[in-house]
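Reopening this one. Same input as before:
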Amino acid sequence: MKKARKQLDESAVDFYREHRWCWMCRFLGHQHTSRPERHHIAGRGRNHDTRANYAALCHECHQAIQSQKAAELVCLVLKRKYDPEHYDPAGICYLRGWAASWMTDADVDRTERIMSMMRGVM
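Same output, byte for byte:
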């Protein structure tokens, strides 16, 4: 018996249509040709399939980001840069069950500065 594929909701379809490249590779200046995967910044769960919780990452970057403690902050830097109309750190905190003060714009700014410094080294 063939397993039925999960139907993507409209926001996921729109996300894939609009984001055809890996945000991390683009940020770091790498050239990847693989189609990005939809990474859930605050993880998967009930009510977590929203545009504010998506980041476009190729398979290699997706694997790397999932193994880092600061994955949410890194993805929020990319979200703010490449999908600003759906940038919502407080919403991510809510999905994670964290206080809204856990992840502020100042935290995202600091992470972006670190990423920019890394960019020159990588």
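So the earlier flakiness isn't reproducible anymore. For the record, The chain has one domain: 10-121.
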